[in-house]
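Dear all,

This email documents one entry for the complex benchmark we are building for the journal club exercise. For each entry we list the sequence lines for every component of the assembly. Then comes the predicted three-dimensional structure of the complex as a token string, followed by one or two observations. Please use this as the template for your own entries, and keep the labels exactly as they appear.
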Amino acid sequence: MSVTAAQGFEAAGVAVGLKSTGKPDVAVVVNRGPLKVGAAVFTSNRAKANPIMWSQRVIQDGVVEAIVLNSGGANCFTGSFGFQTTHQTAEKAGELLGVSAGDVLVCSTGLIGTGDEVFRAKVLAGTEQGIAELSADGGEAASLAIMTTDSRPKRSVVTGDGWTIGGMAKGAGMLAPGLATMLVVITTDAVLTAAQADAALRQATGRTFDRLDSDGCMSTNDQVTLMVSGASGVTPDLDAFASALAEVSQDLAKQLQGDAEGASHDITILVQNAASEEDAVEVGRSVARNNLFKAAIFGNDPNWGRVLAAIGTTQAAFDPYDVDVWMNGVRVCSQGGPDAPREDVDLTPRATDLVIDLKVGAASATILTNDLTHDYVHENSAYSS
Amino acid sequence: MSVTAAQGFEAAGVAVGLKSTGKPDVAVVVNRGPLKVGAAVFTSNRAKANPIMWSQRVIQDGVVEAIVLNSGGANCFTGSFGFQTTHQTAEKAGELLGVSAGDVLVCSTGLIGTGDEVFRAKVLAGTEQGIAELSADGGEAASLAIMTTDSRPKRSVVTGDGWTIGGMAKGAGMLAPGLATMLVVITTDAVLTAAQADAALRQATGRTFDRLDSDGCMSTNDQVTLMVSGASGVTPDLDAFASALAEVSQDLAKQLQGDAEGASHDITILVQNAASEEDAVEVGRSVARNNLFKAAIFGNDPNWGRVLAAIGTTQAAFDPYDVDVWMNGVRVCSQGGPDAPREDVDLTPRATDLVIDLKVGAASATILTNDLTHDYVHENSAYSS
């Protein structure tokens, strides 16, 4: 049900030919209220797509009526014509829905540098068709329409005490954290103010989507949006809501990891006993971005030396000669020297657990990443995306 | 001739079974003087191999009599036993050469975490055998003995006004800048003080080896060493010497790039009209480390959007919407929008030129990198290295 699991939302997904495959490529999600609260986080890439620049303005007042998302083209680096396309998309949706264009978010995903007249015409047609097909069970169709190289849709629902949170996500490449790292729409019928929604969203994304780093490449178009209808009439306990929102976010982040382009391993990097959470994140990310480590995992090779070579490039507080490293439960390195034999480690399962014990403090963080595979190279060399 | 091109040096390369292939794996280079001046730069990785820790002490007084290098094992994260192995290597060489062990540098390269009794015995045997086989034309043999996954040796010679600089290098993976990025030994018979040698070496490496970033992975064992015999009796013009040293360094760096593991393109990234050289380096490096861009080049796809997405993650001064990008002479992006058609770009040659014009200043920098290929993944997943 994804974005229509919570009360007060309608959605649709339609096909207008933006994708050469003819698959659905425009999604619309509308908030029927009574609240029209919204919050969003955006890529921190300075190279921002037109829909990001538009949506950053829209979100400022905390009011969101609807969101239009297209796959099949990023509308990034397409000049003022591209920005006008985004603007016209919001105006079209606003006109048809009887709301202000300034309360309509827009998201795009696909190849950078494409966004001509044909693209514009298709996005506008998709907006119109999507709004015509809105329904209270359109969440699944919407989740299909935002897919790009994804092999499957990503959906998640968590139910609280009288309220519900549901979400959808897309993303298989260029997965590295800015503020957000993909297109995600999460809806809830809980009663929240804009400030509460914003705080909850930033807290959830900071420890979920922001800690997914599949390939170290930050997108120009990423956006995570939370839409609040309040249709349940229930004002949630804020801690319970934050926890549920983090659960939906982490569920979607794990689905993104599990479907990352070409990956054969989902690697969970737990950095523990760090001096600070920031240190733990920096150490984890240095490993997540190390091609040699990632290629070794693809080859089922527990090459812990590459872990130490990666973390040695960071500024985090630890002694490289007093670090322990576990792979899938086997301590292969202790105090910066060899421990259990490499042969004891079974790396054949897709789920791969790496634990790095820095032994200097009590903080920890978990980074999700993937291995570097032939299929990753193939997908990202054989096709423009 | 590599390290024996300059007068006053002897070298050897021998095979003692550190490599399973039986190929040469221990090299020795000895300075016969009259000067015994040395300078070296080391990896900035905090995870440092035992020979790095040893050599950093040896170099402090600017006196170097000899250097022993082994392939077939990095002697990194092998504990105090490994450090003793390095120490014993220097002592063995010092004893046989009649010099202080404290003036003998040691370098190792190969798999991290290996350095047991067998390794020690072989390195000591290789040191002894290498010293027995020293000769004034041993430079070629030495350059073969330091190879790991290199497919060919790297050698360079430049002759100045009465003096000569010669060098050898090894390195095919884990090529990313620290201070140095590989094992390199450069010799000269010019007359230089230790301070002059150190200054010239730092200047040369800063703009050559430090700007080679093949795969973003910084080694634990990298060292670039300059040995000065003064045997020509000629005190060089320092600018001419610096220029010649930079020429040898860049020649070796390009040979390393040309032989990088699995690469099918040598990519030269020129960042021009930057506000500062630091900005130009930061921008160039962000592209050199972007897997999506590197995979696109492998696929002969001039995907300039990935260039902009990469540079947008930096803090350098520029407007992402006023940047021009050329690929192999074709301006594919101007002012942050599409320019010439992608089809106009021919990416089939191995040599690939990327120019990024930031349009904000007068500084520039060139970064060398490679593409991301199936063979890179294969070499780094199928074998421990």
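Observations: The domain at 2-258 of chain B is CATH 3.60.70.12 (L-amino peptidase D-ALA esterase/amidase). DSSP finds ten helices and 15 strands in chain B.
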